[in-house]
Amino acid sequence: MRNWLVLLCPCVVGVALHLCWLLLGGPGRRPAGPLASFPQWELKHYDVVVGVLSARHNHGLRNVIRNTWFKHLKQHPALSTRVLVKFIIGAHGCDVPVEDREDPYSCKLLNITNPVLNQEIEAFILPEDTSSVLSEDRIVSVNFRVLYPIVITSLGVFYESDGVGFQRNITVKLYQAEQEEALFSARFSPPSCGVQVNRLWYKPVEQFILPESFEGTIVWESQDLHGLVSRNLHKVIVNDGGGVLRVSMTGEGSWPHEFTEGVEGIAGGFIYTIQEGDALLQSLHTRPERFVNHLKNLEQEDALLKEESCAYDDIVFVDVVDTYRNVPAKLLNFYRWTVESANFDLLLKTDDDCYVNLEAVFNRITHKKLDRPNIWWGNFRLNWAVDRTGKWQELEYPSPAYPAFACGSGYVISKDIVQWLASNAERLKTYQGEDVSMGIWMAAIGPKRYQDSLWLCEKTCEPGMLSSPQYSPQELSELWRVKELCGDPCSCEGR
User: Fold this and answer.
1) Are residues 82 and 156 in the same domain?
2) 8-state DSSP, 275
3) What is the pLDDT of residues 390-411, one digit of tens each?
4) pLDDT tens-digit profile of 26-59?
5) The model's pTM
6) 459: domain range?
7) Alpha carbon 221 to chain centroid distance?
8) CA distance 184 to 205
9) Does residue 378 fall inside a structural domain?
10) Are residues 82 and 63 in the same domain?
11) Are residues 285 and 193 in the same domain?
12) Secretion signal: which residues (predicted)?
């Protein structure tokens, strides 16, 4: 009998470890399904679960946390068993090198092929069988995004095929997104109608390099009582130069209505050239080699993360490609994991570049009696304008301002809110950032908000602060060193 036990023990241990790895997930693989498919056991209770959003490559920040406030927590006689801390990491790295993405915040391939170089390109072309029809619309506009630098050399309008020449007064302007002043414009009139090319009249404009990620709107406006000769975007041929620009319409869910003046459509066109052509060709030539090296680096990153997870047992890998745009999805997946894996009262969310004082957090929970249902405790931004460009670009939330949302450096929500988020995770729409997404989600259920300015929104140091964001590993270490030495991370005056 003893021999059988000796043989079975390693198998049992191996099965247990494999099951644990499946439940927690691992880098580069798909985590297992919900715990409901396995026999249930009583979950350990924690007063607070701390979720630390962390990028895959931020090993240095995670190690600093493990050696500062996390280490202090583990050694604290009263708090060590009351708190569960987990780093939240996407199980999958982006398989597109940063240089080959449309922007550094997503995992979308910059799909430029056979670029048209060293020549002028007409952006819009009317099919031969398309007739010119005068519409009732006096203002028509179209939105576009630049994916590789271009220069617009001319703006144009559709001509009228009545054989009597150009008889209209039309102004064409180019606006940068969210800007009220036009970058440049062209005015067409009977005595000054420009040059006819194919089926458009063109006039040269002042030339500016429009950089990668530039977002603009071209507006055609009739100065007469008549409407414009215009077409629906789907009835013209768009020449994107091999993929260096993209034309978008509000109806396609890509642009908010405030970006559009008048009616969406095409009432002319523009001529452009691609800049830095040699650099583009070189980049396309070296792309295959870049992809091979990047995938090798991803494999190494997976191995390092697996080793880190096994060493510290403080990482939750969620089934998400780890990019900035996917941070809201990371958070929702972590909420689901928390509900399935722990019994708890409150959840604290923070980031891996944040200083956190958990002792102060617990003291305020007790003092303010925040350990109860339906609470959201943080430092809230109110009437925060929606950005339509840049890192925080949001094109799908239609309002000009977000609902109230807590700063991302730290906030606390009660268990019932986490359960609601977890149970609705598949239906909740994610937006550009996890903080604003959380505000939009919470607007649906209206929890009790507790405003507390000690959850700092900006990188600064204040006595008694609960959290502060945007620190490097060295700065976090120094903050904690000063706190340990003097009791106040901000200074040691009088000591």
Assistant:
1) no
2) S
3) 788 888 888 999 999 999 899 9
4) 565 444 344 333 344 678 999 999 999 999 999 9
5) 0.84
6) 452-495
7) 35
8) 7
9) no
10) yes
11) no
12) 1-16
Measured between alpha carbons, how far is 31 from 359 in angstroms, rounded to an integer? 33
The pLDDT, as a whole number, for residue 36 is 38
Helix (H) or strand (E) holding 380: strand 380-381
Q: Could you tell me where the beta strands, DSSP code E, fall in 284-371?
A: 315-321, 343-351, 355-356
Do 161 and 271 lie in one domain? The reply is yes
Domain boundary among 275, 302, 336: 275
The pLDDT confidence band at residue 249, using thresholds 50, 70 and 90, is low
Residue pair 397/258 in contact by the 8 Å Cβ criterion: no
Task: Measure the CA–CA gap between 463 and 22, rounded to whole angstroms.
Answer: 43
How confident is the model at residue 133, as a pLDDT?
65
Higher pLDDT, 486 or 130: 486
- pLDDT over 70 percentage in the chain: 86
Measured over the CA atoms of residue 65, residue 67, residue 72 and residue 73, the dihedral's sign is positive
Mean pLDDT of all residues in 233-257? 76
Domain count, the chain: 3
Nearest Cα residue to 121 out of 197, 176, 215: 197
pLDDT by residue (tens digit) across 419-473?
999 999 999 999 999 999 999 999 999 999 999 999 999 999 999 999 999 999 9
Does 417 map to a domain? no
Please name the residues in contact with 30: beta carbons below 8 A apart, sequence gap of 6 or more: 91, 319
**156 in the same domain as 67:** no
Cβ atoms 154, 203 nearer than 8 A: yes
Residues 143 and 204 in one domain: yes
311 in the same domain as 215: no
| Structure-derived torsion over alpha carbons of residues 472, 473, 479, 481, reported in degrees to the nearest 10 | -160
CA 331 to chain centre: 13
Amino acid at 234: H
Domain membership of residue 40 (yes or no) is no
Instruction: Measure the CA–CA gap between 484 and 495, rounded to whole angstroms.
Output: 12
Asked if the structure places residue 365 within a domain, the reply is no
Question: Residues 161, 208: one domain?
Answer: yes
Q: Of the candidates 141, 387, 131, which has an alpha carbon nearest to the alpha carbon of residue 247? A: 141
User: pLDDT tens digits for 190-244?
Assistant: 999 999 998 899 999 999 999 999 999 999 999 988 889 888 888 899 999 999 9
Query: Pick from 321, 339, 355: which residue ends a domain?
Result: 321
Average pLDDT, the chain: 88
Q: What is the largest CA-CA distance in the chain?
A: 106
